[in-house]
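Example record

One chain of 134 residues, shown exactly as stored in the release files.
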Amino acid sequence: MTEGAVPPELRYTRSHEWIRIVGDEATVGITDHAQQELTDVVFVDLPKLGATVTADGSVMVIESVKTVADVYAPFGGSVSAVNDSLKAHPELVNRAPYGDGWLFRIRVQPPGQDVATLSADEYRKFVAVASPGH
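Predicted structure tokens for this chain:
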């Protein structure tokens, strides 16, 4: 995937998370733009399985050599899976943000929540306006 890629099949948030929805489960990660801004990820504090999350609430923290950043839930629900491989290999967030660098899954409750997410085109425009130097 090219630098700055925004896969068209995903949904996005203004806080730079991507979402892949399958049924009532949403896989969440941070966008390529976000991982570039963070630079080298050195630690990922994953949420606990079964934890209840609220839409727009902080779910976990990512630490990089540059900063610490919260990751937010795009939907309310419960954490149904976490990417345990990130404990030993947090750099996957940088290398494959849309693949092996996914963070967690949420079982969306109630299913079909209408939450404001962005399409790939809307997210590209948002990033262009939010960070005109990129």
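Notes: The domain at 28-112 is CATH 2.40.50.100 (OB fold (Dihydrolipoamide Acetyltransferase, E2P)).
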